Queue: 2 jobs
Job 1
Amino acid sequence: NGFAKAISYALQETKKYPEETRAKLLELNQVYGSSREMGKQMREVADERKTTQKPVLHVQINFHPDEKLSQAQAETVIDSILKDIGIKKDNHQYVVVQHKDKAHDHYHVVANRVGLDGELLNDHRIKDRLQVACDKVEKEQDLRQTQNRTVTYDPSQERGFRYATAGERQINKQQKQNKPVRDKNSKIMEQTNEIRDQLQIVLSTKKMDSPEKLKAELAKRGVDVQFSENKKGISGISFKKDNISVKGSAIDYKWSDLSKVLEKNKDKAEELTKVEPQASKPTLAAKKKGLQRERL
């Protein structure tokens, strides 16, 4: 049962966290009981609409890392967000769970796309719609504004939102890459930030133009590099320092981004090689003049 599995995951039933970081059930709507029982109730409603292939909706809601919401605040803003993306209290089954295992709290919502009325919730561009709903509630409830959203609430636009420009996306990307990694485990946080710092130093060298050079240079700095590959070649990258491993994507340096930097450096190096001044060849007149001097 996909519903039961998603709810169990949200509740972190297979994880053994201490009390202070354990997942907290925030809200149940139109369901009750254990994760298995809730999953069964959702499945019964979903099965009423025979043509629906993917009735499970699982989204994550994040706010500014420094925003600390009370339970009452969290319930209010999450209800507003869910309403904006089409999930209605009187028509949809859903579960809201607060996760506290990361540096900042976040919320998981598992919902049934099939409503009690039998209609199917449209999930087209649901991630973009979720960003707009979160941005909207932050502005309306005077919460800290989350940076680096790719689409934001904008009531001045006819459609009520706008996408970030190419320039804004580039700035957001640079800010994310320079932002310290946060983790409740201080050792993990320290080593992860150290890995990213060393990577940025190495990438600032224009001669860094191949995966082999990248791996060798980081090894000198105590960082082990592991590449994952598929039929087309390198498809991913991860780093390890002092027995702490981190994926490139976790520090905002996916292999797809790193490979572009290496390729760019390689192209620049080739261009410089092409335009390097070559020693000028002596003209015919100069050659004759040289021969005349030799005869003298």
Job 2
Amino acid sequence: MDRSDRMVYGLRVPYFITESRINELMQQVEPRNTDVWLVTYPRSGTTLTQGILANLLNADASRHQTVPWPEVGWENSRYYISLDDLEKLVAPRCFKSHWTASEHVDPIKSKARFIHVSRDCPDMVTSYYYQYLNAIDGDKSYRRSWDDFFQQFMTSELRWGSYFYHYYSWRRHYGRSNILYLTYEEILSDMPTAVRKIADFVGVDVTERDVQRITEACRFAAMKAREPEMAHHYRVGAIGDHRRVMSEAQINSLTHKMNEVKAMLQFPGDKSCAAAGRGRQALTCADPVVAGKSLQTK
């Protein structure tokens, strides 16, 4: 099988994500109003939040079984789940995705609910670089330097497309009752509160003992120890790691780009890379311009 990245609905994705599976999700899988999609750009807190959801729903099963990745269409992938097995999952069904707010995860058209988790941009792109270099999770042929990778990220040449458009596509729906917005930093800094928010959104009753159990189970060291076969996927799990590799010029470039996006989301004065607001104008794939500069969508 050709293991090169492919384009699916304009989005560059890994080989195991197929257009036929996305079509199946749109045409054959009936969304339920109890469904919850965990949506992130890679390296933004996916594994941590997936772990919280898995522990909320079924502490005895793996996070991949409890919160599967339905977009995987290659049957030999360890992430694959059949449509029949998707249908058999009991409510609330929870899924993970890295998709933009479109197709099968359109928060306006779908009856489902969505948890969107974002991360401080410099830390996210740093972590993404190391994932790209990883022979298991990343691109086995990728040998470029950090500076080359950063430039590719800024011009949206990497897998999963433009981070800036991904962020915009989800955050422009801020205020919708079917989307819970979280940041990786707030989950790490106060996990008990994050667990309660997620439980309430999903519709799972928890006691303080449950909150404590889930918090301890989802600490970085605990999750890494519980999944030795996925040790390559757990790297640092900390805030501020970008300082080891990122220059001031790169930080400034990234911050400037994010501020352009957030200006369209009516957060012109926000200094972080994780806040969002209600958009005052629409940005689409056909018109990917912010402050005169392209977002390089998808």
